[in-house]
């Protein structure tokens, strides 16, 4: 029994381990309550089915899984830090695939329905325009979540394997896959080795924050999709993604290097209007094995929820007087 406690303590060595699961469970139950407890949930369930049935979903799932597996055996020449590089590449793979699925589904599900006049059929029933937009957004997020779940499992497995793979490549003692633990009644049960499992748990905060970033970009895509075609939507979201990750550097460079009031003002204006996506990037902390404080996860969740809510409100305004006839 004491061995079980040792395993649990090793798995929960990072303070963010428990908080990550709490945030994930809260998000899961909130989505379930919305989908099956509201009228907009009908739109959300239909949109989720549409998202996971489209060929792009399976294409992204297959390509991302292949990239994760290939990166496992690819030498990064990092002087015994290949696991860290695998974490960074894996988180970037999840983020890019999630953004592509969210933006593409927003274009096909909202823009095409508006241009194809099928949105009028939905709005003729007891569902108003705000419920339509909110249901579409939640449905897209649920579709991205269905993409993240299998990719996260694959990501965790390849890291679990990579620990022993690198040890074998460096002629070190290989950590066992499983460690037999004794539970109540004297029954022995093989459990994942704590040393390997602890490395896997370090990626969970990064996966959750990558999902938050996808939620923010999807909200922007939904707002844009109410007025502009898909090609413009893709360009806008790509620009927001790039600039949003550079805003902290733009502000700091304007203060210290350029030292121009106009440049600094423009940089601060852009940083205020566009989301600060850099807040969701913790690649350095995850790669080096440092823990992510629970307060940071909570703050990022609140920031992402607030910005996504603001973009959905913008979508309400843009779609309110949109001519559907």
Structural account:
- The protein is globular and about 70 Å long.
- β1 and β2 form a beta hairpin.
- The N terminus is likely disordered.
- The protein has a two-stranded antiparallel ribbon with strand order 1-2.
- α4 packs antiparallel against α5, α4 runs parallel beside α7 and α7 packs antiparallel against α9.
- The longest helix has 41 residues.
- By secondary structure, it is mainly alpha-helical.
- Proportion in β-strands: under 5%
- Largest sheet, if any? 2 strands, antiparallel
Number of H/I helices: 13
Q: Count the strands? A: 2
Overall 3D shape: globular
Task: Name a few traits of the molecule.
single chain; 325 residues; two-stranded antiparallel ribbon; 2 strands; disordered N terminus
List the helices and strands and how they pair.
Elements: H1 2-11, H2 16-37, H3 40-53, H4 55-73, H5 82-115, H6 119-123, H7 129-169, E1 178-182, E2 188-192, H8 194-201, H9 204-225, H10 230-258, H11 261-273, H12 283-287, H13 294-320
Antiparallel strand pairs: 1-2
Helix pairs in contact: 1-8, 2-3, 3-7, 4-5, 4-7, 5-7, 5-9, 5-10, 7-8, 7-9, 7-13, 9-10, 9-13, 10-11
Short description:
This protein has about 325 residues and is mostly helical. Helices cover about 75% and strands about 5% of the residues.
